[in-house]
Amino acid sequence: MDTLFTTVSSKGQIVIPVELREKLGIKPGTRIAIEQQEDRLVLQPINEELIANLVGYCKGKSSMVEAREREHRMEE
Q1: Closest of 58, 27, 59 to residue 45, by C-alpha
Q2: Residue 43 and residue 50: Cα distance in Å, rounded?
Q3: What are the residue ranges in the chain where pLDDT is below 70?
C-alpha cells in the first residue's frame, strides 16, 4: 500500500483513510491502541485478534474478561 497522508485537527484528531479502515475492520466506536516507538506512533485497533494475541501476555490476578468489564464500567 502506498503512503497515505492525513492532517491533525486543532483538537488533536486525525482521520484514518477509508481504505485502511475497511482493510483493518475499523468501524465507529472501535478502540485504538496508540504506542510510541522512538519517533513514530503506532496505532492498532483493539479487536478480537489483538486480544487473542495478548492471552497470557499480562499475567495477573484478574482475567482479560474481568479487565475489559472493569474498563467498560469506568467508561459509563
Answers
A1: 27
A2: 12
A3: 1, 50, 54-62
